[in-house]
Each structure stands twice: as structure tokens, then as C-alpha cells.
Amino acid sequence: MVDLEFFKQNGYVSLGQPFTEEELSRYIELYDRDRSETGYFWRPIAFDGHQSVNCEPLISSPEFDGLIRHPALIDPIETIFEGPSSLAEACLRHMAPHEGDPVEVWHRDRRHMTDRPYRCGYLHMMLYLSDVSEETHCFSISPEPCDGPILDIEEQVKQRGGVHLHGPAGTVILFNLSAVHAATVRKTTHERKSVQVYYGHRDGPILSQFTTIPTGLWRDHPDPEVRGFYSLLNTRSRKFAAAFG
Questions:
Q1: Within-domain flag for 50
Q2: Which residue in 97, 106, 165 sits closest to 134, CA to CA?
């Protein structure tokens, strides 16, 4: 069960390690194979290219569908949403060892949706596929109650501080992407591997144009629930469907 009270008071919640050892090993292997065999899907972002990302995992490694729709994720997500969810974006991320100064850019991904439960229009699922500690890069968040005042970013961090979230490979964190958060880049010899999936309300707006949803999932899949989950189509997905059928 997801700790709703903690999420309500902080804007994030840890699910601990919800996957079996076998599942986690499979996801790590799939991630590593994606980087090594389909590197052309990966592109550098942020911090002079120090971080790289593949936001087309359903194309490069379709097996990631099993992770994205895993019941251990969908059940708590839809509990928070108080309704059905849909895929908004899915990305694999890699943070390389860093020799420079630490970097921490606090930001919000979107405005709060005050008409949604917990002011949460989208949930971001962070899955660590490598051990994360004080010696590595990590995800950080500034705790924010869903019924408190919405502060500007600088004031939010000043008043409420920031929490560095560490854990072994397999750790899952859910957070409201409207909460103030950061990728904390540390001077380290370690890499960080993560899968980061964004979930939206099924009747909500499009989040981004980064992830293409294959027609085999939103149009041709025999299960109507799968078609529904993948039904929040961005323009990118529609254009690829029109071009390739």
C-alpha cells in the first residue's frame, strides 16, 4: 500500500523495492542492452552532455512495456490519482562519472493542477537501476504539502529544504512533478542508471512530445485496458502512425 499521508505532506513517496530480484535483474539487463545495442536512440542533455537519455524505450526495447505497466507501480499511482492513469512520457537516463563541481538545479516540471487530487496532474516514477548513496549522483526533492501555499522555487527550498533520496538498485520513488526537485550531480567515479516514467490522468492533457507510443499498444492491442493506458497520444505518435500505418 502506498503511504498516502506521507505523499500528502511531502509531494513524494518511496515505494521501497517493489520488484523481485529476478525482475530487477531483467530490467538492468534490458537497460544495459538498450544502451549498448541501440545507442543511436540516446542523446546528451544537460550539464554539457554529462547526462544522456533515451525517451523512446517502447521503440528501442519494447519489453519496457512490462515495467511501465507493472501492477506494483500502477496500483499506487492510480490510488494517488483516484482514477485511471496513462503513459505521458518514458525515458531511460544515464549519469556518467563527474570530475567537476557539484551541480543542483532546482525546478518544477509543470504548474500544479489544483483541480486534481493532491494537486497532482502527473506523477514521475524514478527507478534506480544502480545503487545510489552520498557517493553518487542522486535525485533530490524539496518536500511540499499538497494543501500548503505554493511558493516560488527559491523560497520553497529556503523554507522547506531539500532531501537527497538514496537507496539500493531497485528503489522506486513517486513524486508530483510539480514539486520542486533536482538531479543532484556530485563529484563521483560512479555512474547512475535510472528509468524515469511520467504518468498522467487518462482524461488529462499531453505532457510532452518526447515518447512515441507504437500503434501495437494504443490501437491494435487486444486488451482494451492496455489501449486505454496508452491512449494519451502526443502529436509525435500520431505523425508516426500516419506515416507508417
A1: yes
A2: 165
CATH number, domain of 173, equals 2.60.120.620
State the virtual CA torsion across 194, 195, 201, 203 in degrees, nearest 10. 140
Total domain count, the chain: 1
Q: Containing domain of residue 47, as a range?
A: 4-201
Contact (CB, 8 A) for 181 and 24 = no
Length of the chain: 245
Kindly give the residue spans of alpha helices, DSSP state H, lying in the chain: 4-10, 21-37, 57-60, 65-68, 71-81, 153-160, 215-218, 224-229, 235-244
Query: Model confidence over 133-192: pLDDT tens digits?
Result: 999 999 999 999 999 999 999 999 999 999 999 999 999 999 999 999 999 999 999 999
Cell numbers given for 116: 486534481
What is the rounded average pLDDT for all residues in the chain?
97
| One-letter amino acid for residue 239 of the chain | K
211 located within any domain: no
Do the domain assignments include residue 88?
Answer: yes
Is there a domain that residue 10 lies in?
Answer: yes
The answer to whether the beta carbons of residues 68 and 213 sit under 8 Å apart is no
- Other Cβ atoms within 10 Å of 216 Cβ, number: 13
- Structure confidence at residue 49 (pLDDT): 64
